[in-house]
Design brief:
This protein is an alpha+beta fold. It folds into two domains: about 120 residues, no CATH class; about 170 residues, Nucleotidyltransferase, domain 5 (2-Layer Sandwich). It is about 45% helix and about 15% strand. It has twelve helices and eleven strands. Strands 4, 5, 6, 7, 8, 9, 10 and 11 form an eight-stranded mixed sheet that branches. It has a three-stranded antiparallel sheet with strand order 2-1-3. β4 and β5 form a beta hairpin. The longest helix is centred in the last third of the chain and has 30 residues.
Length: about 350
């Protein structure tokens, strides 16, 4: 294969899930020889949805009428289905259930066919399968819209338990895909990831009047009433997240329980570290109190803002005054900051939970 190869091309995507779905789409479109014929004569795998009373996904080697595929090994479609099962539960049992299966207790088979006794439950299960098909085709935004409508409808009808189920499924979808891009968009523009990153940087540079925006740092704290306090710094370079540059901070015990004081300590320690590249923009997870606590620590010319979580409001300090900016959710600059903030929150909580576990063992 190497001897017969003349060029190498790649398409950069934003997540593992997008890469798996795009790979499947590309293989189906171009049918490259080495992807379809392997030395051990194994055929590629496909995902199908059965035509039973309660349909279920199956993985086999049959390309006809498949929902997704081909995949080079069984691990890839299995991993994709496991991801999606947290968003839209389904049954995998090959027999008629007489009692709820184990997965129903884990929320991964809901409603379980063994428990379905009303027309509404049957419709709910079929809707789950319909959403699964949409996810396998890369239609993430349509599924998100559908789950949001179902959640609001259930809440309006005071079916709060079901509304909570849809809320949790929405949360799982957001964690899995963040800001997903359908495979077809990558096929139309192989440089889409780079274009989106540049668009994010350009929009923030124009909004904040920053000529050069190469490195962005986001900070967030995590603690339980001041105990096991930690913080995290996440970094975006040239519009893309750089996990290898993330850093943990353990807050000193001398600091009070105040988020404001914790943020001041972290920024002070970070700015003393001259080995790290200088950021063009520092973003705090918080509001005006956090900004006022750290503004005096920054050298002249370094831009500082905060992202308030409740309304996703950008707060920009100007001396003793502040400007609040509410951007549309589709704004590429805001989406970049949201990804950084979510990463900082996750990264900080990871160390916080580790410290709490260690304290319990003492």
């Amino acid at each position: 294969m190497i001897e017969k190869s003349h060029t190498l091309e790649h398409i950069e995507v934003a997540s593992e899930l997008e890469s798996l779905l795009l790979e499947s789409r590309l293989i189906k479109k171009f049918r490259p020889f080495y992807n379809l014929i392997s030395k051990d004569d194994k055929s590629p795998y496909y995902i199908h949805i059965t035509r039973e009373t309660f349909p279920r996904p199956v993985i086999n080697h049959e390309p006809k009428n498949s929902i997704s595929g081909p995949f080079l090994n069984r691990y890839i479609p299995t991993r994709i289905l496991n991801h999606f099962r947290h968003i839209t539960p389904y049954c995998v049992s090959q027999r008629t259930l007489k009692r709820p299966c184990l997965y129903s207790h884990l929320g991964l088979c809901h409603p379980c066919p063994a428990n379905i006794s009303t027309p509404d439950q049957k419709i709910q299960y079929k809707n789950n399968i319909s959403r699964l098909k949409s996810l396998l085709r890369g239609h993430f935004s349509a599924v998100k819209k559908n789950l949001t409508l179902q959640m609001k409808y259930s809440s309006k009808n005071q079916n709060y338990e079901l509304a909570a189920v849809y809320r949790n499924q929405l949360h799982s979808l957001e964690l899995l895909t963040a800001f997903p891009i359908p495979p077809d968009e990558y096929l139309a523009n192989p440089n889409l990831t780079q274009d989106l990153r540049q668009m994010s940087l350009d929009s923030l540079s124009q909004l904040l009047n920053i000529p050069t925006l190469h490195r962005i740092e986001m900070y967030d704290n995590s603690h339980l009433s001041g105990d096991s306090a930690t913080a995290a710094m996440t970094v975006a370079q040239n519009g893309g997240l750089s996990p290898n540059l993330y850093r943990h901070f353990t807050i000193k015990k001398s600091v009070t329980n105040s988020d404001v004081d914790m943020m001041a300590e972290v920024l002070s320690r970070r700015l003393k570290n001259t080995d790290w590249p200088k950021p063009d923009l520092i973003v705090l997870d918080g509001g005006k109190p956090q900004l006022s606590a750290v503004a005096h620590l920054l050298p002249s010319g370094m831009c500082l803002i905060s992202l308030a979580k409740r309304d996703e409001t950008l707060i920009v300090p100007h001396g003793d005054t502040y400007t609040e900016i509410n951007l549309p959710k589709s704004h590429p600059g805001l989406q970049l900051l949201q990804r950084l903030r979510d990463e900082a929150h996750r990264f900080s909580r990871r160390l916080h939970h580790k410290h709490r576990s260690q304290n319990l063992l003492k």
